[in-house]
Batch of 3 targets.
Target 1
Amino acid sequence: MIDLVANYQLSERWSLAAKWSYESGDMYTPITHLSPNINNPDILEPIYGEYNSERFSAYHRLDLRAEYLRNKSWGHWTFYIDLLNAYNRENINAYDYSPNNVDTLDETPAGFGEDVPVTAEVSMEFFPSLGFEIQF
């Protein structure tokens, strides 16, 4: 994992920050094909390939922050704006077998059989947020 962090003091009260994170893709075990259940042939069960034989795409994202700080005699208050995953990178965390064929991927992930319906779990999309903090 690599994290690059930058902070810039724009003025006495304003600061800007950025954090870029990168990780190589985690390993996963694909489903190579489906087999009818012994007790109920209408139910298809996944048959797994070699353990951890495939790798997700690399994970990376950029988080940005603008912060306004106001010192007081009793402490300070801060107002901030965050833009998490600023360039809206679609980072896949997991592939799931989808026997009901809901929200399946158009393109079969590496290692999965062509007839295996798969969905993807995606990490947080672009997420703006506002915050207010008081310290005494």
Target 2
Amino acid sequence: MLPGKRAIIWLVMVTVLGMWAAGCGSAVSPYEAKKARPKPTLAPEAMEKFQQGQKLLREHKLPEALKEFQACVTLAPQVPQTHFWVGKVQFLQKDLDQAETSFKKGLELDPDNYQAQAMLGKIYLMDKEKSKLPQAQANLEKALLTSPDYADARFDLARVYAMKGETKKSFSELTLLFAQEPDFALYHYEMGQMLEAFGDKNLAGKHFQRAHQLNPKLAMAMEQMKHQGGEPGKKPDPAPEVKPEPSKANAEQKPAAR
């Protein structure tokens, strides 16, 4: 065999072995490699824009905050949180179409961003035609799989179930929320709505009354109390504990210890 021919054969063998080692023989799977990859961070200039946007948002200066966050996206387009905060301000400005686009862009970069999943769920929940409720449910359930204690997502999921007529599932989600935070007025209001749908007007009235006591400015609770002939000043009896029924989003969760 000629020396040149031997060199060619050797080169082919080395190439094939190299390809095998990079594929089948690799100790780290593509998924593990992706997980191990460090997430992109903000350079100083982008961080300055981000912090300024946060400051303006706290001051309720939405147009100014949006401008800073958009500048941050321009400087760091591969950082998922920059898209999330642009979407958050757009949502607060009621620009839901643009907010949806921003949240989706963030999720393309980081599919595990439970906050973006929850915000998309909230947007679809607000659809007047109720045609996007299945999408809302899917996004909210994904958010809760990543962050089971995310109360805002669980509350929105309870509302989705209620709007779909799945009252027992909605009731179950609200019961889990009470285990985490029993003194939040809006939870009591929604629980009252559920109980009224079940036909238990007496217990529903107690929850409406409690909602009003916790937040006297909650007009919805006051209206329900007037509708039922309740007395705003009267202290309600403690509501009995209710065991949640398993649903896709809460089957693995246990109520927090009281």
Target 3
Amino acid sequence: MDSEASKKKPWYEVVATLTPLILGLAVAGVGAVFTQVYNFRQLQLNELNLLQNFHPLLVSEKEYDREFAYASFTALGYGELAAKIIKIKEDPAGRAIVEEIKQSGNAAAKEEASTALTRIPARVYVQIASKTQQQKAEEIVSALKQLGFVVPGVENMEGKVEPPKSSEVRYFNAEDKAAAETIAAFLRKNGMLDASTKNVTRFKVKPGSLEVWFSAQTK
């Protein structure tokens, strides 16, 4: 018993032995926290600088300018920030960018992109077969805007192309099918009983773009 007791080190010797290890772990922990805080602050500064540099493009009335700014953010590795801005602005100009972020961004960016897509209104282009349909088309445009769609205006296609035999809501990307069906149902409720959806795949069109085509019989 005495020999075993004599082998045990006093507590202060044990503490003295462990102190360098404890200090080393503490310093490493503090260094890791400092590095993490520094990196976070640096990221914030970079984002602020980026926003400042691209501010004229972000507030531009030209969609091309805003889309270029969003694309630049994404290319520089700030896809999550781009998606957040597009979501806040509910900007149709950024739809193609958030679609790309949703496919190839990191987890946080993908989540922001998914949320942004639910906020961005689809853009609907309205084509009529003759001038006599102008008033009806303007009523449709006004109603679609109230539903939350972006409708640039009405284009008269008389003499340019052959109108469809029945009114159509054309969509070009699978993710826009639901919006097309919503619009077609709305048109039927508002007198365009022949309205139906049509998936057009021979053209490459940005997601979020749809077309309403009046038939010659629409009044």
